[in-house]
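Design job #97: recover the sequence.
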């Protein structure tokens, strides 16, 4: 079942649009929170991938929210998108739908900006998700801050010092994890195409993540920063969640 939902978020104090793919079974479904990239919205994955085919007859609900280019974090000069994604959205969906409330049945994924959101949400909320998936993720936000590609990042991250002081740079988050020795049971699957401009920062995240003790797997294949590549990523993600044979299994 494909649902379109418009509801008033208390956390954001504004309407939020969701696309939801819901199985028609006996409930207690696994849930995948699937995030779009910059310039996208709640319909991005539906319009540009074969996701509905991949989840057909699977025991997986897929929830796709809009984030208005706000990177799925609590903005320095704006709204608390991070609290919405990791708190209100999950609580609301688990009230509306017959979803499993076990963290082992909860997943988060995204491409590009959504990859940053999925990884950041999982690093800063240890154990909230079983696995976080990043496809061509924007995993070095400082690099993007210096080359914003026509996106106004100041409302989101503040100035460069704000970005570091407020623990919004993923490299800084990983350094803090390494220093604190706090274990994170969430698994991280990082993928990037060999023709993607974000390749270097994804390799960097994998190396730093391993050094900090994260349970992280890195997959490189042919591919660019486009939905031809990301469609294959979401296909493999559904297989992974279903426990089917895929090279992504940790």
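Job complete. Output follows.
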């Amino acid at each position: 079942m494909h649902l379109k939902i418009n509801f008033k978020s208390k956390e954001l104090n504004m309407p939020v649009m969701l696309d939801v793919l819901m199985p028609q079974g006996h409930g207690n479904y696994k849930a995948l929170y699937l995030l779009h990239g910059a310039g996208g919205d709640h319909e991005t994955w539906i319009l540009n991938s074969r996701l509905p085919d991949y989840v057909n007859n699977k025991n997986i609900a897929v929830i796709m929210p809009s984030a208005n280019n706000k990177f799925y974090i609590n903005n320095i000069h704006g709204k608390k998108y991070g609290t919405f994604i990791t708190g209100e959205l999950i609580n609301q969906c688990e009230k509306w739908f017959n979803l499993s409330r076990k963290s082992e049945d909860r997943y988060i994924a995204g491409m590009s900006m959504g990859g940053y959101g999925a990884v950041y949400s999982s690093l800063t909320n240890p154990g909230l998700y079983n696995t976080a998936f990043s496809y061509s993720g924007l995993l070095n936000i400082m690099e993007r801050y210096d080359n914003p590609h026509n996106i106004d990042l100041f409302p989101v991250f503040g100035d460069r010092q704000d970005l570091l002081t407020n623990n919004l740079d993923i490299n800084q988050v990983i350094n803090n994890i390494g220093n604190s020795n706090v274990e994170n049971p969430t698994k991280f699957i990082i993928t990037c195409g060999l023709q993607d401009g974000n390749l270097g920062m994804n390799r960097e995240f994998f190396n730093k993540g391993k050094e900090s003790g994260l349970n992280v797997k890195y997959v490189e294949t042919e591919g660019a920063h486009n939905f031809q590549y990301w469609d294959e990523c979401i296909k493999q993600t559904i297989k992974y969640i279903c426990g089917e044979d895929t090279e992504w299994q940790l």
